[in-house]
Amino acid sequence: MKEKVNVYFTKEITPESLVKIYEAVGYKLPGKVGVKISTGEPGGHNYLKPELIKDIVSHLNGTIVENCTAYGGKRQNLEDHLKCVEDHGFTKIADVDILDSEGEFSIPTIQGCKHLDKDIVGSHLENYDSLLMLSHFKGHAMGGFGGALKNMSIGVASTAGKLNIHSAGAENQEQSYVWSHLPAQDDFLESMAEACSAVMDYYDKRGGIVYINVINNLSVDCDCDSNPETPCMQDIGIVASLDPVACDRASLDLIYKSQDPGREHFLERVETRHGAHTIEHAVTLGLGTTFYEFVDLDK
User: Fold this and answer.
1) What is the CATH number assigned to the segment(s) 5-296?
2) Least C-beta-crowded within 10 Å: which of 39, 65, 100, 232?
3) In the predicted model, what is the mean pLDDT of residues 218-228?
């Protein structure tokens, strides 16, 4: 019989519960730990707040890590991004490292990838022995939803890496060309999963990754949106796992099982973008499983 992986859950969304669920996963991230979050686009307000994440970052003696964007907002320019990080309060709780602030390097994707032969990441990534993939689970205009897999792919990629993913590895990586010549939707979703394979393989040889999804402020729009739609559902809780596929699948399943009247609006965003295909391709690549055991820490 196929063995299930554990996905841990708590409905409490507090600084203390983030530490509690990390401890429940049972893997101690070694060495210098990068805590990968989205710092949130100026004007937006749904990102994970510093007061929520401060205890887990401190618990890990971690550094908040992020990369510049590729869509021309206030976080593509390093100086503006650093101002955003400060304005949003993250520098008050920890050191913050913009990984691609001093260049980038490529890490290979794994065998079986159809679109990408490499992922392009910020040069500072090599300074971190392990990662906490601390993701705000929400909708997304292009990917349908954003969670662990999006944070590990688009989020860990440098500006050039983001363009590589969004173009599904097309030959022309010039920014204006990419945004006006987007690939088929499934090719983009598959490219996100393939970028994840590179990051996972890289950290399999180092200190590993723990995945936590905070399912709150459930807007259909991402934290990269400077004017996101108001959240359409009540907060659900936090899930965590050593398996990013199971982490995202369980997060989606909690929304599908919800009785919240805003559920249909949220799922319309996911389904019209074929969002679950990222999970499906990640399974095909062997990055994880959708066969999980739900461990409710509140019981």
Assistant:
1) 3.40.50
2) 232
3) 84
